[in-house]
Amino acid sequence: MEQAVLKARQQAASVAAAAATGKSTKPGISNIGDDMDSEDLLSKPISHVRFAFDGQIMTEEQSDIPTNVGLHHHGENPDKPGYTIPELLHLSRSTVPAQRSVAMSTLGCILHKINVGAWDLEQSVEVYVGILDWQAELYFGQTISDSNKTCRAAATVALWTWVVEMVKYKSLVRLATGGQVETQETTLPGSDINMRPQPVVAQGVLVTRTFKALDEILTPKFLEHVYETIHYSTMPDQQLMLLAECIKYFADMSEEFKQRIDDNSRLAVLLQNRYPYLMSKK
Predict the structure, then answer these.
(1) What pTM was computed for the model?
(2) Helices (H) and strands (E) in the chain, counts
């Protein structure tokens, strides 16, 4: 399944330069920030950090990148390559499908960099908090139901990176506990192979904010779009599998999430019939 994600990211990167040109005409960030207005958010340094299409942070040494690479745009500071988090969210509502797709793919790559520990802990926390501050979940949920198949696929991979990969890499545990992830391990008699590591439960503001964000995504409307996408197979099979796995991980996160999914009975039946092994995994 990870191979499907890697392939999807590579496909998105291959069209990024062409897709990122042209102006976006849809409104962007006017409705962002329940706790902070846009001026407060823009005063935070992370709101001005620029990212390449592969999710990597742009450095000063990369400021002379040629414009034909595709990292320059028509937003604020068009002379600077790369995209900030608010610019990516704005781009995800572009009228140009290729721009929406690249925006979601890049956001997914940023989350992937956090998951694999590409940056030090402090920087990873700062980037992740920036994503939460700008309420990226509102864009994730909407783009899953995009009318364009490529956009839906890119949003699915990005959502999988947030919901599934973050759990697999224990990223939230690492971010919320300051990187001090300790497990008590047991071994079988006569064996030096560690077995059954005791699970670590992360707590704190970052975890609370993450669950609040995911709660915003997991709406009845979103679940209905998931049903229609899988039922009518409106994406490639690999992305459909990723979307199903997202729902499985949502259900495993909390009883409330599971009940919400079960309430959409036809989705629950569809997932169980089409992906019995995945849905029965513990």
Answers:
(1) 0.81
(2) 16, 2
